[in-house]
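Z., the sequence and structure:
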Amino acid sequence: MNQRFFSQSGMTFVGLCFVTLFFGAVVLFVLRAFPLYNMKFQVVSAMNAVTSRPDATTLTDADVKKYFLHSIQVTNIQLFNNFNINQYVEIIKPKDNRHPKLMRVHFEQDNVLFGDLYLLMKFDEKKPLRGPLRSEY
């Protein structure tokens, strides 16, 4: 009885290259997509800061844009400034007085993935100018 047991141990060089390439691609994608995701999070936070103000329902359009610009300047986002704020931020007035005004922020931002491939984020979000949410007991 002469039995031989052949067992494989470890990875081949090709398998190791494939795993390394896969993890490298995932890391590249995360490193290029994270700034876009972080920008979206910061813009939403600035919008929430403006729409949750106690006087949000009485703010003029210029005041809403001014407070948004002030909130966004705390971050490192360079897209918004005094000259182009009207291009990206608008106030939508309701057709009747039962609904609040809406603050709309819309823009596009891209980031190079590699070579001629780009990641594109289209941001278009509306939030009502209602002031702070109060719980009713």
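The first strand starts at residue 89 and ends at 92. The helical segments are 13-51, 61-72, 85-88.

Let me know what you think.
H.
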